Amino acid sequence: MTALIYCPFPDKESAEAIGTTLLDEGLVGCINIGGPIRSLYAWAGERGEGEETPAILKTDAALLRTAIARLEVLHPYESPAIAGWPCEAGAATREWLAGLNEGK
């Protein structure tokens, strides 16, 4: 089964650097990095806002927890917002991402 991870980054450069590391480590097969988004949030009892760079990472569901744990370590935020979930995918995508798990 396939899995997706959603995670906002402070900028494109950090998303690219961390995505490259996760690709090199075989924990994800792809990272899609979006354009800037405006974020409104509540944190530590205060309201805030800022610009972030969203990313969706694709992986095999068997690697989901490991990929999220590694992303938490690499991410520059103190408490990054990371959400991951198993999902249905087409046959070619399932086969491609299942190959990530072969060497693990």
Features:
alpha+beta; Alpha-Beta Plaits; 3 helices
Descriptive overview:
With 104 residues, the chain is of the alpha+beta class. The protein has a single domain (2-87), classed as Alpha-Beta Plaits (2-Layer Sandwich), CATH 3.30.70. It is 31% helix and 38% strand. It has helices at 12-24, 64-74, 91-98; strands at residues 2-9, 30-33, 37-43, 46-60, 83-87. Strands 1, 2, 3, 4 and 5 form a five-stranded antiparallel beta sheet that branches. A hairpin with a 2-residue loop joins strand 3 (37-43) and strand 4. The two termini are 16 Å apart.
Map the helices and strands:
Blueprint: E1 2-9, H1 12-24, E2 30-33, E3 37-43, E4 46-60, H2 64-74, E5 83-87, H3 91-98
Antiparallel strand pairs: 1-4, 1-5, 2-4, 3-4
